Amino acid sequence: MHRSMAILGTKWKPIIIYALRERKARFGQLHAAIGTISKKVLTDMLKELEADHILLRQEFKELPPRVEYSLTPKGKALIPIMLDLVKWDNSYYEYDKSGHPAKAVTG
Amino acid sequence: MHRSMAILGTKWKPIIIYALRERKARFGQLHAAIGTISKKVLTDMLKELEADHILLRQEFKELPPRVEYSLTPKGKALIPIMLDLVKWDNSYYEYDKSGHPAKAVTG
After folding, report:
1. Does residue A104 fall inside a structural domain?
2. For B33-46, what is each residue's pLDDT tens digit?
3. In this complex, which of B2, B89, B105 lies closest to A76 when CB atoms are compared?
């Protein structure tokens, strides 16, 4: 639990993973897709995700050099769990907003 | 995604939720079960989880007063997702440790 939350436990990492769910992307494409993240923070997050084997960074020796990021199988396996989390959040969000008191689960 | 990670996105909250998965607990019991958390941090986390409708705090007017924490239906609904996250982490942990290079998922 400690470990998996440490991997995911920032605002940005799930957003980066989600942005790569269906396609590879170059740094500039990712940065444009995510919008409000700084280049410095995006660079740091990409390095950490690569170190955690969630992303693969591929460098192509072209001129100008091209770098592409994609999800590894481990990263791909996170997607359905993240979608469950979004579903969970959405399904309770309106309920919470309505001021309906939360009920205890007994037993 | 922002919102659900903001709710979960600390080291401690998933551990607190998990500790309450099968039973109510008083503050002292939670503190003992979790071990390394400070009382100040545990107090703050419990307040935030209550505000997010994940925990219910029940006060019993006894002498000495008794306070019990339990999961709401929203909190209970998080448990299977958290278990999936643990399973995900465990299934790739040994693989990563072996130094096996992560492979890209193409297509």
Report:
1. no
2. 988 899 999 999 99
3. B105
